[in-house]
Amino acid sequence: MTSPESNAPRPSHHARNLTLLVAGAAALAALAYKKARTATPPRDTSDPLGDATARAALGWGDVEVGASTTISTPDGAHLAVWEVGSGPTVVLPHCWGCSHAIWIPVARSLVESGHRVVLYDQRGHGESTRGTAPLDLVTLAHDLTHVLEAKEVRDAVIAGHSMGGMTIMALATYRPEVLHERARAIVLVATAAAESGGKSARADRLGVLVMGSSLTSRVLRSPQGYAIVRSAFGDDAVRAQVELTRTLFADCDPSVRAGFLASMNAMNLLEGIATIDLPTTVVVGSKDALTPPARSDAMAEAIRGAHLVTLAGRGHMLPLEDPDAVSDEILRAVKG
Fold first, then answer.
1. Number of H helices and number of E strands within the chain?
2. 190-240: per-residue pLDDT in tens?
3. Which of 21, 188, 199, 242 is most buried by its number of CB atoms within 10 A?
4. Closest CA to 229 of 244, 246, 248, 217
5. What is the mean pLDDT of the chain?
6. Out of 59-68, 73-82, 200-209, 313-322, which region has the weakest mean confidence (pLDDT)?
């Protein structure tokens, strides 16, 4: 006879690795704080989104996304949306705990090559509010539907990073008619469709508690925070890119991080994505420790005709680490 815990959903490799890193750092930070409260070095308070040098290091160039517009959902969430450029449309859902800013280097490249780019902050992230709907992948699929409809998107390439990729796969699973009506192709970047197993329900609960704690935000802003976030990158990480990721994740509401982590822990979208009949590209970094290449292999096997691209030496934050390679795959999808 199996225990209830043995049948419980297990965490994705993505969420589990980050949870363990943060939990370990939180313990170290708490000990250090208790031992030498007045000796803690000040954290770097520079704004990674600010000056021209930082913008250049982030690969933003001269792109300005301007002010957002707002899309309201039936449950009261307000989604911040940006629209730049003109031409064939590309929609870019972003990752867990960050914001549309992660995609700006790719958006710059796409706009310069003659494309319309739609960016938005997932609910509870960046400038978007939380609303009252459950913080899960089904809700994110509905949110993407609202964005596509409000912006009158048709014949688009939809490219999602990490939780943004899960959003697209949830759309394929729960709202397949919307995906086929609005998209011509999809690009799944550094993401996963299912948990990889190996941990108990107790570990799941601990992970959700860690991510839902304000201590985690404090640790991420502390000197230990840089090392935690650096592990999400591959070789030759640019400091400004790591700092941007750290700032966004630390600023994300802990309850939002925890809510979506719980949903990712229980995720299994493999059956749903097996019904996708649109051209699909799966992109992964060879050194992605959060959604490792084996997860992309499983997705490519599940989606008929999917094209798998592995970027050597890259980690999880591909829209920042290698925006040219990601843009190239999106442009290939646009051209069909």
1. 16, 8
2. 999 997 655 567 777 888 999 999 999 999 999 889 999 999 999 999 999
3. 188
4. 246
5. 86
6. 59-68
SS3 of 108-166? HHHHHCCCEEEEECCCCCCCCCCCCCCCCHHHHHHHHHHHHHHCCCCCEEEEEECHHHH
- Best CATH choice for the domain 18-33+80-335 from the list 3.40.50.1820, 1.20.1250.20, 3.30.200.20, 3.40.50.2300: 3.40.50.1820
Residue 106 near residue 90 (C-beta atoms within 8 A): no
What is the C-alpha separation between 173 and 36, in angstroms, rounded?
Answer: 51
In whole angstroms, what is the distance from residue 314 CA to residue 139 CA?
30
List pLDDT tens digits, range 126-141. Answer: 999 999 999 999 999 9
In whole angstroms, give the CA distance from residue 185 to residue 251: 32
